[in-house]
Amino acid sequence: MKPRDPKSVEKLFESISHKYDFLNDLFSFGLHRLWKKQLVSLLAPSSGQNWIDLCCGTGDLTFHLAKSVQPFGSVLGVDFSHSQIDQARKRFFADPSLPVSWLKKDVLNTGLQSGSFDGAIMAYGLRNLENPEAGLKEIYRLLKPGSQAGILDFNHPIEGSKTSYFQKFYLRRVVVPIASLMGLRDEYAYLEESLKNFPEGNIQKEIALKIGFNEARYELLLGGQMGILLLTA
Ligand SMILES: C[S@@+](CC[C@H](N)C(=O)[O-])C[C@H]1O[C@@H](n2cnc3c(N)ncnc32)[C@H](O)[C@@H]1O
């Protein structure tokens, strides 16, 4: 699969949508829930605000945010995968009072009005974009001045470091073999591929400041395996 090719990425997420949540829990030992909670609490969304969850997938963060901004705020989940949004909609029926809505679009081309949101969030999306810098630019465009964005993703550790060694070992020796048993070898082998040209946290900060964000901070999680980029527009 061509890294970051939008059509291939869309196809990949279409094909794994039925197993996505299960495998997320399995491969992270449920820790992705904790990191997502941590991300939301760092951003501290408040009641009445309007947020956007870019690359929302099955809606984990969309629902999480919605609980913080309800009853007068709202959260828009955006994803280009029909099946992922479909799964999110199914989950929504479990709690239809939450103020969420969905948009099936490429996050690099949302067509949404500039300065529409009080906050933006993205988990495990930036690394998959054709151009991560364009993703940060789009986030900046969508935010009201002074508002916040939080981006959770794999960190890209320095090549040759212990962190990098462990990450490669885990992806190659644990993730790919287990995914293979479910017929999803290539889909999960793509994880390592997607990290190859993904900028390291400090570079992400520099890119964000160059785009125009006023503040940028990067926090490492799980000994540097993951990271959270926190931005103020
Ligand atoms: C790894 S999943 C993360 C889903 C969710 N945020 C989570 O953390 O559980 C990445 C999601 O990004 C979506 N995605 C990737 N590139 C995209 C793009 N250019 N536009 C919209 N969605 C995209 C995929 O369809 C997929 O649902």
CATH topology: Rossmann fold
Categorize the overall geometry. globular
CATH class: Alpha Beta
Largest sheet geometry: 7 strands, mixed
Q: Mind explaining what this structure looks like?
A:
The protein is α/β, with parallel strands linked by helices and 233 residues long. The protein has one domain: Vaccinia Virus protein VP39 (Rossmann fold), CATH 3.40.50. The chain is built from eight helices and seven strands. The protein has helices spanning 6-28, 31-43, 60-69, 82-92, 132-142, 162-181, 185-195, 201-211; strands at residues 50-54, 74-79, 100-104, 117-123, 143-154, 215-221, 226-232. It has a seven-stranded mixed β-sheet, sandwiched between helices. Helix 2 packs parallel to helix 3 (60-69) and helix 6 (162-181) packs antiparallel against helix 7. Bound molecules: S-adenosylmethionine (SAM). The site of S-adenosylmethionine has 20 residues, from helix 1 and helix 3.
What keyword list fits this structure?
seven-stranded mixed beta sheet, alpha/beta, 233 residues, Rossmann fold, 8 helices, 21% strand, 7 strands, binds S-adenosylmethionine
Summarize the structure.
With about 230 residues, the protein is an alpha/beta fold. Helix content is about 45%, strand content about 20%.
Question: What does the secondary structure layout of this molecule look like, with pairings?
Answer:
Layout: H1 6-28, H2 31-43, E1 50-54, H3 60-69, E2 74-79, H4 82-92, E3 100-104, E4 117-123, H5 132-142, E5 143-154, H6 162-181, H7 185-195, H8 201-211, E6 215-221, E7 226-232
Parallel strand pairs: 1-2, 1-4, 2-3, 4-5
Antiparallel strand pairs: 5-7, 6-7
Helix pairs in contact: 1-4, 2-3, 5-8, 6-7
This protein binds S-adenosylmethionine.
